[in-house]
Write a structure and sequence with these properties.
By secondary structure, the protein is mainly alpha-helical. It has 5 helices and 4 strands. The chain has helices spanning 25-43, 52-59, 63-72, 101-131, 138-144, and strands at residues 6-8, 15-17, 85-86, 93-94. The chain has a two-stranded antiparallel sheet. The protein has a two-stranded antiparallel sheet with strand order 3-4. β3 and β4 (93-94) form a beta hairpin. α1 packs across α2. The radius of gyration is 29 Å and the shape is elongated. It starts with 5 loop residues before the first strand and ends with a helix. The model has no long low-confidence stretch (mean pLDDT 86). InterPro entries: Flagellar_operon_YvyF. Residues 118-145 are annotated as: Disordered. Residues 118-131 have a biased composition (Basic and acidic residues). Residues 132-145 have a biased composition (Polar residues).
């Protein structure tokens, strides 16, 4: 066992051997217990239409952890139509990815604008370079020989 495998658990701070999981065994068991609580809650027929807020209130499991379960693919949103999570940029309700379609479009248009400006600057520099001509005098060539 090398020292590279020893770490402090980010949840509780205990020293543990970091092999398969990013947290210690105790914290992993606690996370699994919370997952089972959430999954048992949403599997019930009366809770299948629950939102993130309702799942949080019904299970007392942190919203961030519920979102983590969704992003890991442990909770399949196709089975739970009202379950989703907030966009990381604007906070609107989404069911896939990290940001909503509108924020993705906004970011893409900003990047496109930067590309257009860079392209314009590159063409401008190319035009300026093509206008500059360097002449060498015959005396300079003769002196070098």
């Amino acid at each position: 066992m090398s020292l590279n495998n020893i770490d402090n658990c980010p949840s509780c701070g205990k020293v543990f051997v970091k092999a398969l999981r990013p947290v210690c065994n105790e914290c992993h068991r606690e996370v699994e217990k919370k997952f089972n609580t959430v999954y048992t809650f949403i599997k019930k027929r009366e809770n299948r239409m629950a939102s993130l807020e309702e799942v949080h209130e019904g299970t007392e499991v942190e919203k961030d952890l519920i979102v983590h379960f969704i992003r890991e693919g442990r909770i399949h949103l196709a089975q739970f139509p009202n379950l989703g999570y907030p966009c990381e940029k604007c906070g609107s309700f989404i069911r896939e990815g990290r940001i909503c379609k509108e924020c993705r479009s906004e970011i893409r248009s900003g990047l496109d604008q930067i590309d257009r400006e860079k392209s314009f600057e590159d063409r401008k520099k190319q035009t300026e370079r093509s206008k500059v001509t360097t002449y060498h005098s015959l005396n300079q060539r003769l002196n070098r020989k």
